[in-house]
Amino acid sequence: MPRLQSAAELEKLRADILASRDPAKPCIAVCAGAACDGLDSAAVAAAFLAEADKQKLGGKLEVRTTGCHGYCEKGPNVVVTPGEICYFEVQPKDVPEIIAATLKGEVVERLVYHDPGTGAKAVHMNEVPFYKHQTRLLIGDNPKIDPMRIDDYLAVGGYAALVKALSTMTPDQVLDEVKKANLRGRGGGGFPAGSKWETTKNAPEKTKYVIVNGHEGESAAFMDRAMLTGNPHKILEGLIIGAYAIGAQKGFMYTRHDMPLLEKHVRNALAQAAEYGLLGKNILGSGFDFECELHFDVGIFVSGESSALMRSIEGNPPEPRPKYIRTSVSGIWDKPSNLNNVETWANVPQIISKGADWFTSIGSEKSKGTKLISLSGHVVNSGVVEVPMGTPLRTLVFDIGGGVRDGKTLKAIHFGGAMGGSIPADLIDAPLDFDGMSKLGAPIGAGGLLLMDEDTDMVEVARYLMDFLTKESCGKCVPCREGMPQMLHILTNLTEGKGKPDDLERLEDLAEVTGLGSLCALGKTSADPLKSMFRYFKPEYESRITGGSGDKK
Amino acid sequence: MCDKNIDSIIEKYRGQPGSLIHALVEIQHENHWLPREVMHRVADALQVPFAQVMQIASFYKTFSLTPKGRHEVHVCTGMTCHLRGAPKLLEKVEELTGLKPGETDAESRFTLDTGACLGSCSIGPELIVDGKHYGRMTPDKAEDVLKSYE
Ligand SMILES: Cc1cc2nc3c(=O)[nH]c(=O)nc-3n(C[C@H](O)[C@H](O)[C@H](O)COP(=O)(O)O)c2cc1C
Ligand code: SF4
Ligand code: FES
Ligand code: FES
User: Fold this and answer.
1) How many CB atoms lie within 10 A of CB A83?
2) pLDDT tens for residues A208-256?
3) pLDDT tens digit string along A478-512?
4) Predicted confidence (pLDDT) per residue in A351-397, tens digit
């Protein structure tokens, strides 16, 4: 493939790709996302390929392996187009039947969704309860794309936003659109992306960097990996557009070292983009040069923090720096460096394509667009979910999630992992919103939402989270290094029924001081789960002191 | 261990002290542990003091300074797996293997490890052996799984 020299050449290529594809030709998309892969979806995909080969179906049917479709709970997942027919828990032995039905335009009824209560069937994706209540602007393309093929991304309109930005907009106009869209960072803080971009853009140094934070260290958050593994070009397109707006010449993708498929897809995407001329010198004849490097973490949580991540890219141990040095002005090798989360970047192409007005029509007053949520814990339907900001938690938990497993009742909803918080079930009508959830004490964080059932021991939850953070502290600040083990010690005693009368007071004091003198958010917010516990579940803690071990059943 | 691959990793980063962590991560991936002799070669090639190599290798839990068993057994202790029963699973795996996390048995059959979220929470709790996932694991099923690894 020769490098594309202009926007027109890219559009010509896209037209050729579309012309070569027959939309009526059936396509069987087999999910190879992390959960389906763990359920050996590779064997299912292999069975489809072998059967198609045996029956010499090359011209009549396509088999595609894709990233996460969303409904991980029911993997291995298979979606057949046209019609987006969803088959769940597919096994290799089901393959001949699916192929036969697909060729005849029929449906294998026994493999479609059946309502666990009524037995009612749902065949098409837009009828399946898990999908029907979602707005899948970002993750929705996953079943349509083989992440190893840039042509699949082009076929769904990929890189059209880059074309638009480079050929019809100035960098300032791109920045203005993102600011007007009020895109807020999806990595935890909800900080406006546009203002951050502007700071880096306006910084005096000529050399500037843009970075994708694909570290996803928050426990029970898996949507960034689903996006980056399943549709790497979307994030890359967002990054290139951002670099153009900011005036950065170089980008970094920083992600996990422990996901072989993720690494393979991102490496391949970068190579293909370079081959097509979407990275490198004079991109699409615009005069804009940009390259991108891939970097991996060293398996510690704090390397997801912005300044630590940048130290890590430099090749240094990932230790956070004091906040007064802003990385957007002085980041990697002291150059202005703009870091955004995977999902933040993924939003950029559609904002440029469809405009800020369209984007701000979705979501709540102060939180615009959709949010990817990793739904797990004691939920019936676990998976990657995408809903407009402002959606009531009830929709997420019951309509999409199907409620609590094993017929139990909901006790708490936890957001934001080890630096987040838990709220009681009666706050279920709260809307999913950055500021609203923070006020309730359960900030959205990256978007890991966990249900906890009636049997969940809230003291044990706080102990577990504190244990996690204690092991992850980089040890640089005394309050973080010393405070957390003390809190952990008390919490451990409480779970073992060895609580002392003044333990809760001591915990409250420690929570206060640990937050104060810590350099980064890990230490600062380490006691946030505990604070939410005191706010909503204090009687359970008190009963541990008066009533001994409190072990349930 | 495949020496040639280790050599080529070291060569790739020769003279680049800033790439120390990258080099170690790649060697760890390739070889599953960092022999002392290899770390000496890394120090020489990348021109960093051996003490610094040791410091990094011993600080991050990604790196292992002792050889691993023939099979790497991993129990996810991430939050969903924890809520869905990982503590009981881990207890059983510890009992079956006689190991605590981080340990390798005398016959070098198993190395037991734990770690947070692998991104496949929907099928937790998870037992992973040599990279192969066993989802929705119960203590009873774990016994059968481990039996199949010699
Ligand atoms: C201990 C710690 C871990 C973090 N881990 C991540 C992470 O894994 N992914 C991420 O996007 N942000 C993480 N963050 C937040 C980043 O520091 C940063 O705010 C974010 O990547 C900025 O992107 P955004 O503005 O697009 O949200 C972490 C922060 C802290 C304090
Ligand atoms: S608060 Fe904790 S994790 Fe953050 S820099 Fe200080 S010691 Fe390290
Ligand atoms: S991994 Fe297959 S649906 Fe999520
Ligand atoms: S918590 Fe175990 S895979 Fe996420």
Assistant:
1) 14
2) 999 999 999 988 999 999 999 999 999 999 999 999 999 999 999 999 9
3) 999 999 999 999 999 999 989 998 999 999 999 99
4) 999 999 999 999 999 999 999 999 999 999 999 999 999 999 999 99
CA of A513 to the centre of ligand 2 (A): 14
Nearest to A251 by CA among A283, A298, A284, A286: A283
Q: Is A71 in the pocket of ligand 3 (CB under 6 A)?
A: yes
Q: Is A301 in the same domain as A168?
A: yes
Helical segments of A335-392, H only: 342-354, 356-360
CA of A325 to the centre of ligand 3 (A): 40
Q: Is the CB of A223 under 6 A from ligand 3?
A: no
Of the three residues A106, A122, A144, the one that is the final residue of a domain is: A144
Q: Which pair of tokens denotes residue B47?
A: 């021109």
Cis status of the peptide bond prior to B125, with omega within 30 of 0: yes
Domain enclosing residue A479, as ranges = 458-546
pTM, 2 dp = 0.95
Q: What percent of chain A has pLDDT over 90?
A: 88
Classify domain B3-59 at the CATH topology level.
Arc Repressor Mutant, subunit A (1.10.10)
ipTM score for this prediction: 0.91
Q: Do residues A416 and A526 share a domain?
A: no
For residue B12, the distance in angstroms to the closest alpha carbon of chain A comes to 15
> A298, B21: Cβ pair inside 8 Å?
yes
Q: Ligand 4 pocket: which of B126, B127, B128 to mutate (most atoms <8 Å of CB)?
A: B126
Say which residues have a Cβ less than 8 Å from residue A549's Cβ, sequence separation at least 6: A496, A497
